[in-house]
Every structure is written in structure tokens, then in C-alpha cells.
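Pair request: fold both.
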Amino acid sequence: QVQLVESGGGLVQAGGSLRLSCAASGRTFTVYNLGWFRQPPGKEREFVAGISRSAGTNIRYADSVKGRFTISRDNARNTVYLQMDSLRPEDTAVYFCAASASPYTYVGVTRNDYANWGQGTQVTVSS
């Protein structure tokens, strides 16, 4: 089992940037495919970005964030990041980190693809 703790959320103006971090503890970090999801107010949780285990050679993004968000992982620090640039008010949500232990470099895009979740961090983008 892995424990995930997100940080880096906050209030930012439209067009600004934030970097979210998710620190993991427990099992060996490199065995996990990792993802970021978000849940806007009153809406379902949705996929944002994902990165595959080990070297992170496979990366996927939701269409709504392509070209603006960048996911990366630092295996030495047991941390996955989400760099968010050109933020928009519609990016306002609680952002969750997720992990799934797997021998495959598969990046899932649904909640069911991930067994472990952080508690979330709030991101608010003002217009």
C-alpha cells in the first residue's frame, strides 16, 4: 500500500501558474503508474494527466489540459508533479493524486484504474 499526500494548491489569477506535488510513501515508488484527477464543484471526478511506472515513458493528458499542463515524476524523491500553466477559471477543482501498482507501463484514464488516492488539494482560478 502507498500513501499519497498532495500539496501546492491555492488561489491564482487566470493566466497564472501553479505546481502541484504528490509525495508517496510505502512501497517502492517506481512500481506505480501515477495519475492526476480533478473534481470541479458539483461535477464528477475527471482524469487530468497520467505517467507510467519507472522512467515515465508513457504520458497521457486530457484534451482540456494538453499544451498547458505537464506531468513529471522524480523517483529519487518519490514525488509526482503537475505543472499547470495558463490556468483558466474552468480549471478550478480539487486535484487528486492517484497511484496503481503494475508491471505494465499502462496509463489509465478512469478512476477504476487506480487503487490508491490522496486527500486532494484545492485549486481556485479567479477570472
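--- second member of the pair ---
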Amino acid sequence: QVQLVESGGGLVQAGGSLRLSCTASGRTFSSRNMGWFRQAPGKEREFVAGIRWSGVGTYYADSVKGRFTISRDNAKNTLSLQMNTLKPEDTADYYCAADRYPGRSSVSRAGIDYAYWGQGTQVTVSS
């Protein structure tokens, strides 16, 4: 079991930056691939970024590549998402998620492969 709590959302102007954090409890965080997803009002949830359990190997949606950076600290059971050059279209609720299976070799972009989810943190980017 993994419990996840996000923080760091807020209101920012276009071009600004935010850093989201996800704190995990449970002994298997360090063995699970992790992902960030987002859901904008009236839209489906979408993959934003993912990272392998080891921290080696990061993956991004094309819409955020070059602007967002995902990282993790397995010693502290934390996952982060540094978001730079934010755009109004980045406005959404952001969720961290833990892979259903420990030790999976590849990072999935499908939400169905993630069994544990945080409650979400809201990010609003004004133009």
C-alpha cells in the first residue's frame, strides 16, 4: 500500500514557475514507477510525466517536454514536478500516482496502470 499527498499548487501568471511535491508513505515507494497526471475542467485525465522506480529514466508528454522536470528522492519518499514557463493551458488539477506493480521495467502513460493516487493539487495559470 502507498498513500500519496500532493502539495505546491497555486495561482501563477503565464511564464512563471511552480514546484509540485508528492509525499509517500508505505515501504514500497522506492520500488514503484511514479507518474504525474493532470485533469482540466471538462477534459479527460492525461499523463504529464513519469519516472522509473530507480530514478533513471524520465518520460514526458509532448506538451510539457522541455518545460517540466520530474524527479524523486527515494530516501525521503518524495516525488517532485518542477514546472517552468507555465502556460494557461497547463491549468488543471495535478495528481501523483504510484504504479500498480513494483519493479515494472517500463513507465506506463496509462492511468489504469497506476493503483495509488493522491488527492490532487490545483494549478491555475493566468494569462
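Observation on the second member. The first strand starts at residue 3 and ends at 7.
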